[in-house]
Specification:
Elements (H helix, E strand, L loop, with lengths): L4 E2 L1 H4 L8 H4 L2 E3 L6 H12 L3 E2 L8 E14 L7 E11 L4 E5 L1 H14 L9 E10 L2 E8 L1
Parallel strand pairs: 1-2, 3-6
Antiparallel strand pairs: 2-4, 4-5, 4-7, 5-6, 7-8
């Protein structure tokens, strides 16, 4: 497995989803030592089938999560770019849902604190993407169902 995508049990370190924005390393709960799983993971994260924002208020059965840092343009940033979390959620039916969202990233961190990581779940966790109004517009987030 590459240094860019780590999983705590494979590296022996305490890599968590919360470490992604601090270290720049990616996170996934999937076991990528099996080639077919690694190929499925690559396809799901490189070419996600869905945009999470297009599925607001739909219930999704979450089984896997991938988080990585990406550089995005932002006009009011000093260099015109900022680092943001890119999240891909993989559901029980094999669909992948992508977003670049601090709100979803914060939701995942809280969810993992309360429920553990997906590789420890006995069954899929039901989530519902939601839009929360803020002073600056709307933030994409997740509710547990």
């Amino acid at each position: 497995m590459s240094e860019a995508m780590t999983k705590s049990e494979n590296t022996g370190t305490a890599m968590t989803v919360a470490d992604v924005m601090n270290t720049g390393l990616g996170y996934t709960d999937m076991n990528l030592t099996d080639r077919s799983a690694a190929v499925a993971f690559y396809n799901a994260t490189s070419n996600p089938a869905n945009k999470l924002k297009e599925h607001v208020n739909e219930v999704l059965s979450l089984v896997h999560v991938s988080v990585e840092c990406v550089e995005v343009s932002k006009e009011d940033a000093p260099e015109g770019k900022v680092i943001a979390p890119r999240i891909v959620l993989i559901t029980e039916d094999g669909q992948s849902y992508a977003c670049v969202s601090v709100g979803v990233y914060q939701s995942i961190k809280r969810m993992f604190t309360l429920l553990g990581t997906p590789d420890t779940w006995a069954k899929p966790v039901k989530i519902k993407p939601v839009l929360i109004s803020t002073k600056k517009g709307q933030v994409l987030s997740l509710n547990l169902v």
